[in-house]
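2024-03-11 09:14:02 DEBUG pipeline.ingest accepted 1 chain
2024-03-11 09:14:02 DEBUG pipeline.ingest length=369
2024-03-11 09:14:03 DEBUG pipeline.predict start
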Amino acid sequence: MGHIVLSYDDNRLAVDLFGEYDQNLARIEQKLKIEVIARGNRVTIKGPSDLCDQAKMALDSLYRRLQDGEVIAQADVDGAIRMAQAADEQLILPEMETEGGEGAGKMHFAQIATRKKKLTARTATQDAYIRAMDRADLIFGTGPAGTGKTYLAVAYAAALLERGIVERIILSRPAVEAGERLGFLPGDMKEKVDPYLRPLYDALYDMMPPDKVERELDAKVIEIAPLAFMRGRTLSNAVVILDEAQNTTSMQMKMFLTRLGENSKMIVTGDPSQVDLPKGEQSGLVQAMELLSDIPSIVRVQFTAEDVVRHELVMRIVNAYDEDSRQKAIARRMLGRGSSQNIQAEEQIANLKFEQSAPPDVQASEADL
């Protein structure tokens, strides 16, 4: 059994760390099945040694964020626990601060910092996703809704723009369906496509002050447009994000990917299980990932239901639908196998009937073949 005692110098931050009525510590107790006791600015952790180490890592991570001026919520506590578990299982290799000072020897998980907020990876996959955006020029982020694929991509783009690493942000998604059939909708083009691009606007306003977003939109430094508007362009010195990419056709995806210019990054997000294309039409996202899987400089990060960072029910809902899809796929395979076996049996019976009914000379000639 493990026994760890932690002490925090800043009483005000310790109060924020523990949460109202020690709710953050209670959350760690609940998730890790250990005992966490607070006395003043000290915390005692009791339980299996590996779980105590995970609790310590989670608390250290949260305390460092409070020292940096961040505000932590329950979702951050849950994220810190998940990241500590992932680090303990070596699913991620967080950076270790080696320089002198209070932070020496403590682990740091992947972060994205914009002028308005700082985002810390809440799951091992988010950590891998952020690091992939750092090192690759073309990244595919795929998986269910609520995992942070688009939100983190927009945050990363905003951070690069603020640091002057890129000159533009271009955000796009297929409007309505893959064919972008907008003619029947009322209003001009902006009014037609804005409802489908609203999630991208929302993410931008979370990362940057509203007045700055409006200025950058007016100056075309930030551009939000339907996929069809990308045709014929070369997108240089930019972060280019394609959202809902599962609803692109093969030709649309090829058109988009070949827009990549110098000093640009392209981030493609989508959920291959939610394709809205007409029946028989292959998703451009699925095809692109298959065709480009052997190119080392292109990175794919696959999110799962375990990475959902919305309400806990969302993860359960995604799991339920995934299990239903899995069972249906098994049933289809079994049905197909049964049909194949039935066809073979029918052919054997037909051949047997032919042999029995054929004249002797025909039977002989068939045997000679």
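2024-03-11 09:14:41 DEBUG pipeline.report The two ends are 78 Å apart (CA to CA).
2024-03-11 09:14:41 DEBUG pipeline.predict end
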